[in-house]
Each structure stands twice: as C-alpha cells, then as structure tokens.
Amino acid sequence: MVKYTVKQLAKIxxxxxxxxxxxxxxxxxxxxxxxxxxxxxxxxKELLRLQQVLLYKELDFPLEEIRQILDDPxxxxxxxxxxxxxxxxxxxxxxEILLKTIDKTMLELKNKxxxxxxxxxxxxxxxxxxxxxKAAIDAYGDEVISKAENHLLKMGKRNFEQLKAxxxxxAKAIIAKMHLSPESVSVxxxxxxxxxxxxxxxxxxxxxxxxxxxxxxxxxxxxxxERYTTIDGKSNLAYAQFLSKAMTYFAETQL
Length: 255
Hints:
By secondary structure, the chain is mainly α. It is built from twelve helices and five strands.
C-alpha cells in the first residue's frame, strides 16, 4: 500500500501542511497511522476522504458539517460524487453566464456602447424629456415604462440607434404609401414592421400577449400628441391620422 507523508499529500491535494494539521485536530481527516517519530502517513482511503472534504468545502459547506456528513454510516461515496457533479455543473453554468456578462459589458465599455437614461431621450432638453416620460407613464403606467427603459438600457447604444433608425425608415415608407388605403395589403405589411419595432421598444417582443389594446391605444395617442409622429424634425398631422387608422385596423384584424 502506498503511503504519503503530510508534505506529499499537501502537494498532491494543493493544500498547505497547516491545513492538514487542522483537519487532523478537527477529526476531519485522520492519518492512516503515525510513525514512532510522530510523522503522519496517509493511504488511498485518506486521499479519497480529503477529496470529499475539498469538494464539500468548494460548495461552501462548514468544516464541522463536512465531518458529520463523512462520518455518517449511511454516507455513500458514489452518491456524493453525483451530488457534487450536479452542484458544480450548476455553479459552472452560473459562472459562464457571469463571464459572458462581464465580456459583453467590457466590450460595450470599450466601444462606448453603454446606454444611460439620457441616451434614451437624446436630442431633447431635460425638461422636454421629463415631459415625454411623464406623458408615457400617464398613458401606460410606471411599471410598463420602467420595464421598457430597462430593456433598452440593456440593449446597448448601437442596437438602440439601429432600432431608432429602423423606426424612421418604416415611417418614411408608410408616408410614401399614404395615397393608398390604410387597410391595403402593402400598408398593412409596413404596419406589421412598425408593430414589431414598437414591441422592441417596449421590451415585449417575445411576450405571448399581443398587446392589441396597447398598440391600438398608441395609434390614438399619435392623434393627440404630435411629438410622436414628428419626422425629420417636422410634425405631420396627415401621417398621424393615416398611421392611427392603419394601426387600429391591424390591431382589430391581426391581433
């Protein structure tokens, strides 16, 4: 039988000699035997027990609780390994998510791609932005607006700018179709894009709730507040009326 000195075992396990002395005093890991010169010697069984100690310790178990678990007559080594594996896999998954989050944040910071609340209302004075936000809260409620803002903040500046650019592109395409009926196939195809774009702003793109009433209500809001249908810095009442009708028809027939 191979026997290991305390120094050898410490090197194999990656712990200090002092730690092994502590485990001995606590009854957590007793040596196989002691020589006449009082040197501790460990065998294969002690190596396996130390492995269990370190695994439980990695999972944040207190030392006394580890000792009680290992000394329990019902303790099953293979069952313990299965438990350790499942727990460590869960921790691994969580750490991978955290690492991806860190990498993403570092990349966004490096590219100056982080959004803040001021970016959401870029181009507006603080007073005007506050007015916009208050009007939105009055219309949809604080919880809905906060959820939408948090979603946009996580999106990153580049994606947010792309979303705004797409909104302007859709608006111009709809204006070019204003000679048609709001219920026409080609207009409704653009309204579908508009609806999907709005759901991105709301942070509800993957929600099972189609939000028919909310979308229809947004169309009605366009009629009463020109700020929401301003294109290239100019208010367009005819566009607001056309868009509202098209949105109402879409909500009532498609949602």
